[in-house]
Amino acid sequence: MNTTTTTPPLQMVDLRTQYHRFKAEIDQQILDCIESTAYINGPAVKTLQAGLEAYLGVKHVIPCANGTDALQIAMMALDLKPGDEVIVPAFTYVATAEVIGLLGLHPVMVDVLPDTFNIDVAQIEAAITPRTKAIVPVHLFGQCADMEALLALAERHGLYVIEDNAQAIGADYTFSDGRVAKSGTMGHFGCTSFFPSKNLGCYGDGGALFTNDDALAAKARLIANHGQSRQYYHDAIGINSRLDSLQAVVLNVKLPHLDAFNATRRAAADFYDRAFAAHPHLITPARAHNSTHVFHQYTLRLSNGRRDALKATLAEQGIPAMIYYPVPLYKQLAYQPYWKGGELPVTEMLCQEVFSLPMHSELNESTLERITTAVLVAE
Prior knowledge:
Blueprint: H1 15-21, H2 23-36, H3 43-56, E1 60-64, H4 67-77, E2 85-89, H5 95-102, E3 106-110, H6 121-127, E4 132-135, H7 147-157, E5 160-164, E6 172-174, E7 180-182, E8 189-193, E9 207-211, H8 214-224, E10 228-230, E11 233-234, H9 245-254, H10 258-276, E12 282-283, E13 298-302, H11 307-316, H12 345-353, E14 354-357, H13 365-378
Parallel strand pairs: 2-3, 2-4, 4-5, 5-8
Antiparallel strand pairs: 1-9, 6-7, 8-9, 10-11, 12-13, 13-14
């Protein structure tokens, strides 16, 4: 008899185990929603809106269809016009710049910091021109950009700030005067995604905008619903971007557990940090002094040029690793027409060195031990 056993492959995000933890409640809530037939803007969506407003300490949450739509709605609500420039980090997912190009705006890409991977505020001022209208800081991988310095710079130059908070919901930012704010609530708009792998994820697409400005909130709601002020009366050019009730049901079950999810992620990151602390070429992610980290991703740097070889070796052992992101935004074919400068050194370095290990709310010590041992043996 062959008694050989194989270790099952791991997942970057274990959505199945998390679902089974809440299966009874989620299943019942979904069935109740289906029975109600309130599939669009039903009670579940209104419950989520109120729950997020309370959790984030923000006046207005506007649910929408996905995080990319949230960014587009924010820029439309701010009346940005074709040709206006919007400053973004060069090291980010494409959605940050995608809507800028889609609206006929001009993305201006600047470098990021080598430790936190967030936009380098010191680089922003040199990129400002008379056409600059907004800055989009991305709270990458789970911690806030340097919002105090960025907000002060934006105020000096009369610029809008749109926070891309798709990866950092639940993070806390502490200002120098001791005031604490949730990520996504400090700019004119914050935008987030509820993609299934996010810290707060649904079972399809979903997103939301956050703002403390009453007028901007009203305009964003109008735009998200075909520009309607009331049915069949269209006061503005809008889009069709709504969060459906079934997705809101899932988010309502998960929202009370978000802080616990993030605490588990931090504990996993602590385990990774300890395991790799003495390695001469593994550079563990820095944690900003003024922001908590919710570790949407656990992203390291491997400085010896063997990043791709390590990824391949791990894959042979059933351990996934992802590269976020392998190509600078300005080298993507779609965005080369917007770029006239030379290479940005930190972004170039990160694209060659970063890799991410499994990170989710269901990681246990034996799994973390398996992952870290495999990395250390391979390196």
